[in-house]
Amino acid sequence: MNETQNITLNNGEALKLLGMQDKNLDLFAKMFGVNLFLKDDGLQVVGSSPGRELAEDFIKQLLEIIRAGYSPDYEEIKHMVQNYKTQKTDHRVFYKDDILITPRGKKVIAKTAGQYRYIQAIKNNDLVFGIGPAGTGKTYLAVAMAVQALKEKQIAKVILTRPAIEAGERLGFLPGDLQDKVDPYLRPLYDALLEFLGIDIYQKYMEKGIIEVAPLAYMRGRTLNDAFIILDEAQNTTPEQMKMFLTRFGFGSKAIVTGDITQIDLPRETVSGLRQVIGILSGIDGIEVVRLDETDIVRHKLVADIVQAYARYAHNRK
Fold first, then answer.
1. 222-234 burial by CB neighbour count: b if 16+ within 10 A, else e?
2. Quick check: helix, strand or coil at residue 255?
3. Most buried residue, 116, 276, 282, 305, by most Cβ within 10 Å?
4. DSSP code for 78
5. How far is CA 40 from CA 7, 12, 37, 45, in A?
6. How far is CA 31 from the centre of its chain?
7. In this structure, what DSSP letter does residue 224 have?
8. What is the C-alpha to C-alpha distance for residues 77 and 80, in angstroms, rounded to an integer?
9. Are residues 226 and 155 in contact, defined by beta-carbon separation less than 8 angstroms?
10. How confident is the model at residue 218 (pLDDT cuts 50, 70, 90)?
């Protein structure tokens, strides 16, 4: 039996809630199986249980987020609806706990339950492993947490590193010194830093050594105190490289290790240091492993579909 619920909208909220050309309105109607009508006194939700109640609850959650100063775009809202329907995720929790605000005014927050667990793990542990497929925000959120810790003077420097697994054969043909040769591997880290800091502060911090972006080989023989250290693409480390990295850990430091164990680029006979270390360090206080999956992917929907397709392919091959 169809019933009607009214949701009151304040001035200017309709556009933010419903989107350009009412794209969000169409999305809500399709996903919850209801009809929605914009009236002078607000939004009417017409439908039968439980779709009507779900739509009403989600829209009220989204309104609270909008009233708190956020403006999720269509793809974000689409992802939020999917998470809400499958996991009953309350996204308001994420928006109350932003990490930092970029120079352009963008607030960086968790957008899924998995990302929220990941952020909390980083806050509460000295060593965190973030494992999951592309698009889950492993590196992006880790760099955001590092920049925020630097701004709050919790640490003295940020060190970002990745293994350059082709540093021998293919990179040898590229022009420039070793730093020039490995820069293509470090580009995603540079991009995140630029977004969070802006070009002027980024260049200043790089020149003063407050932020260091370097290939993993540069970590050997060092002790890193009062630093926020991120090892990215760690699935491509060997066990020896992983042990070397983890033993660089100094006083007052925090380390985040990110990787995707389904995307190992090492030679077939080489063991992944990331895959191995998870078992070795299991159960140690101060260390947490957070596993993200396709439900935490916040890029284009096709990215999640592609990840799922490859997972099915790998499963069928086994």
1. eebeebbbbbbbb
2. strand
3. 116
4. H
5. 11, 12, 10, 14
6. 25
7. B
8. 5
9. yes
10. confident
Determine the Cα–Cα distance for residues 28 and 82; give it in Å rounded to an integer.
10
62/70 Cα distance (integer angstroms): 9
The answer to whether the Cα torsion of 290, 291, 296, 302 is positive or negative is positive
Question: What one-letter code names the amino acid at 135?
Answer: G
- Helix then strand then coil, % of the chain, to nearest 5: 50, 15, 35
Question: How would DSSP label each residue in 158-220?
Answer: EEEEE--TTTTTTGGGSSS-HHHHHHHHHHHHHHHHHHHH-HHHHHHHHHHTSEEEEEGGGGT
Closest CA to 303 of 133, 102, 72: 133
Residue 259 pairs in a beta bridge with 131
Q: Residue 35's beta-bridge partner residues?
A: 46
Q: Helices 74-87 and 301-317 meet at what angle, rounded to 10? A: 50
| Cα–Cα dist 40/311, whole Å | 48
**Each residue's pLDDT tens digit, 114-147:** 999 999 999 999 999 999 998 899 999 999 999 9
Distance (Å, rounded) from C-alpha 106 to C-alpha 187?
21
Let me know: does 235 contact 261? Beta carbons within 8 Å: yes
Residue-wise pLDDT tens digits, 86-95: 888 888 888 7
